[in-house]
């Protein structure tokens, strides 16, 4: 594990991204709550990793303004509006679909608010388990398409070709037959502003 983590955190530093290693979920949970001030607003994208960390509920219960697009009381229009507001929050929380050992991070999105939040929010915190690390960017893209997205389609009951085949069928995944889940792809290579993006790498397998 150490042979992966140390070099990856150094690679992020060269890319103006702060990488912090946490041994486990509990440590990561505490760190997220320390990094985000209580008066800050928070947006997030749906993620198995964030669900496993149970951090969104904790932020809500301690009084942060959380833009929760999944609130059952919202109409579809309100949910879409909440996604947009979340992308402009003080902090945007997300996980990555895959991370290359060189430090590039791959994010897929259906609606685009995830991409908007990661690209433009004032502060971004990416949380990921060690299982997201791949040897290079090519393998990271492959992981996102052929492993992470099929499992996300299954989790969210999204009827796509990869749900049936278990791997991406990019050329088939088009309207009108299908509503594609990975419509937008973002690769973060580096940051201009130091301090905007923090990655919390957890020494466990989390999410897909
Ligand atoms: S393009 Fe379609 S088939 Fe391929 S991973 Fe995305 S949702 Fe699945």
* Ends distance: 18 Å
**Portion in beta strands:** 15-25%
Structural class: alpha/beta
Cα-atom Rg, whole angstroms?
Answer: 16 Å
Largest sheet: 6 strands, parallel
- Percent of residues in helical segments? 25-40%
Number of DSSP E strands? 10
| Continuous helix count | 8
When the domains are counted, the total is: 1
Contiguous uncertain segments of 5+ residues: none
Task: Draw up the topology in text.
Layout: H1 2-14, E1 18-22, H2 25-35, E2 41-44, H3 48-53, H4 55-61, E3 65-67, H5 76-87, E4 91-94, E5 98-100, E6 105-109, H6 113-120, E7 123-129, E8 133-134, H7 137-155, H8 161-165, E9 184-188, E10 197-202
Parallel strand pairs: 1-10, 2-3, 2-4, 4-7, 5-8, 7-10
Antiparallel strand pairs: 5-6, 6-9
Helix pairs in contact: 5-6
Iron/sulfur cluster binds at residues 145, 149, 153, 160-162, 168-170, 173, 180-182.
Describe the structure.
- The chain is an alpha/beta fold and 208 residues long.
- The chain has 8 helices and 10 strands.
- It has helices at residues 2-14, 25-35, 48-53, 55-61, 76-87, 113-120, 137-155, 161-165, and strands at residues 18-22, 41-44, 65-67, 91-94, 98-100, 105-109, 123-129, 133-134, 184-188, 197-202.
- A 6-stranded parallel sheet has the order 1-10-7-4-2-3, sandwiched between helices. The chain has a 4-stranded mixed sheet with strand order 8-5-6-9, with helices on both faces.
- Helix 5 runs parallel beside helix 6.
- The radius of gyration is 16 Å and the shape is globular.
- The relative contact order is 0.21.
- Iron/sulfur cluster (SF4) binds next to helix 7 and helix 8.
């Amino acid at each position: 594990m150490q042979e992966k983590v140390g070099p990856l955190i150094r690679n992020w530093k060269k890319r103006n991204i702060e990488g912090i290693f946490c041994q486990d979920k509990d440590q990561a949970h505490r760190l997220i709550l320390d990094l985000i001030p209580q008066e800050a607003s928070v947006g997030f994208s749906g993620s198995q990793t964030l669900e496993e960390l149970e951090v969104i509920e904790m932020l809500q219960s301690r009084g942060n303004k959380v833009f929760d697009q999944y609130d059952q009381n919202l109409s579809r229009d309100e949910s879409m509006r909440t996604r947009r507001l979340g992308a402009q929050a003080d902090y945007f929380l997300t996980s990555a679909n895959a991370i290359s050992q060189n430090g590039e991070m791959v994010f897929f999105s259906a609606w685009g608010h995830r991409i908007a939040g990661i690209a433009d929010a004032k502060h971004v915190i990416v949380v990921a388990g060690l299982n997201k690390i791949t040897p290079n960017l090519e393998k990271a893209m492959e992981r996102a398409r052929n492993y992470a997205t099929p499992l996300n389609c299954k989790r969210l009951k999204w009827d796509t070709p990869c749900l049936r085949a278990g791997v991406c069928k990019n050329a088939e995944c088009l309207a009108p037959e299908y509503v594609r889940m990975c419509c937008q792809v973002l690769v973060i290579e580096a940051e201009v502003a130091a301090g905007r993006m923090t990655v919390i790498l957890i020494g466990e397998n989390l999410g897909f």
